[in-house]
Amino acid sequence: MLTRGSEYGMADGDARWRVDAWSRSSDGEFATFAAAGAREGVAFASEAACYPDQFERLNDPSWLRRRFTEVHGDQVVSG
């Protein structure tokens, strides 16, 4: 959602900074997944830019979990 622009009063520069920082995550237990998720989010925002119904899936936790586990596996989420 931040890739599309902040809808919650955050300055665009701050939103870009956060996405960039997450995309480069390399420290911590889940850093590789944070970085992958940020990069995948940027790609999704680009793909869904012309399809508002598709973009709204970002508000559906079940859809997000399915999409994540399809790429990264359920073990990552389940621990």
Short summary:
With 79 residues, this protein is an all-alpha fold. The protein is 65% helix and 0% strand.
Assembly state (oligomeric):
single chain
Principal-axis shape equals flat
Unreliable stretches, pLDDT < 50, 5 or more residues?
none
Structural class: mainly alpha
- Report the sheet with the most strands, covering strand number, pairing sense and barrel closure: none
Q: What proportion of the residues is helical, as a percent range?
A: 55-70%
Description:
The chain has 79 residues and is mainly alpha-helical. 65% of the residues lie in helices and 0% in strands. The chain has five helices and no strands. Helix 1 crosses helix 2. It starts with 11 loop residues before the first helix and ends with a helix. The model has no long low-confidence stretch (mean pLDDT 84).
Task: Please describe the structure with a list of short key phrases separated by commas or semicolons.
single chain, 79 residues, mainly alpha, 65% helix
List the helices and strands and how they pair.
Elements lengths: L11 H12 L7 H18 L3 H4 L5 H12 L1 H5 L1
